[in-house]
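Just curious: can you write a single protein's sequence together with how it folds?
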Amino acid sequence: MEKEKKKIIIVGAGPGGLSTGMILSSKGYDVHIYEKDNKVGGRSACIRQGEYSFDTGPTFLLMKSILDETFALADRKSSDYLKFQNLDPMYVLNYGEKILNVSSNQDKMYEEIKRVFPGNEDGYLKFLKKEKKKFEKSYPCLSKDYSKATDLISLRLLRAAGYIDLTKNVYQVASRYFKDELMKLSFTFQAKYLGMSPWDCPGIFGILPYMEHANGIYHVEGGLSEISEKMAEVIKEHGGHIHLSSPIKKVITEGRKAKGIELESGEKVYADSIVLNADFGYAATNLFEEGLLKKYSPDKMKQKDFSCSTYMIHLGVDKLYDEPHHQIVFANDYKQNLKDIFNNKIISDDISVYIRNASINDKTIAPEGHSSIYILVPVPNNQSDIDWDNNKEDFRKRIFEILKENTSFKDLEDHIIEERVVTPKDWEIDFNVFFGATFNLSHKLSQMLYFRPRNRFEEVDNCYLVGGGTHPGSGLPTIYESARISSRLIEKDLKD
């Protein structure tokens, strides 16, 4: 008689939930993913508007090797499902009077720095050498779980301690290598990938620009949302189930043990293990019985430190623009802009604008001769008093002014066919993102490793966390890593 499969319920079909489902379904578990939306992907879903396709969130793939390994854990090759393009330049940094074309080709990058920021090129070589060592020592520490306090005194972590710049921030790390202030920004703005300021982001994350320069970044044909779509295919190939348009009301518990979920429809479903891929702040404050959580109660969640939010514009336009695939137009006073976002929590007039013009390399996301354009501006999360209903249009106007002043998108508004704007209010209401903080809990040292919500959730037995709100943190590579960690824990616990 065939042994009954262990059943796994996963709440949320974002990158973490899909990666977990892909891995566990390939191991023979009966996987059921419940997603509130009518499509997979969560913050990495595809937005289709008219004849145009947009990515909801992430727009490039860093550390492709982790995605490849995640597919391999599910007995699949990522290249059989996805078409990757290594971008060169990776992105263009627009400082107004100076433009830096950033390449992962080290010879090209050395010469570009020498051309734009002479005197800083040798610092680039020192950066590559020293941050490589930091990466090699620190990344293995991020790929293991921290279920117990004693995990913080592991030999691996102790060996890494001398390399990870515990007493420095990312800006101070860059200052070790570069003299020019704009050059420092070129190797610190990556703290924004975590929704943080480089003056606050822990020095260990100096590995973020290293990871880009050492490994390159990739575009996926059709958009990064294609990764989620193909992961869903793999889950189904392995016999897993994805239930769309199925929002859940709560996690069913007995005592402090998760037993199943109750859907908004009233249906109750039980399983051997429960995995939460919902936004952690939302899950902690909405999906458990009142009073069950102590460490992450609603009152205590509000006291945590959260990332910034984002204001986004998705545009379908009837024109192709000879502009870079990725470009950042920096605020004139970048540091003050970040103070306004993180400390003052107000809208700046002097803002930094990121533009993805993927149609220059990908003809599948818009009609022939048209473009799908993605614009993102970091802004305060909803702990601010900003009324986005009243400020949305003025802020949009400022963004287009900056594009006209600094890029060749000068006539962009004249060519708009489709438009969609997402504000921090939309992130909170439509996407269930706590405080609209699109990069989850901040990554300050007191909210990392053992001190971050753990993959084996410490407040509820039989419950596991994946996604940006748990260890190792925000960003696609680390979200995939969280799925790998939690999958290992689930397999171990179900065998014990």
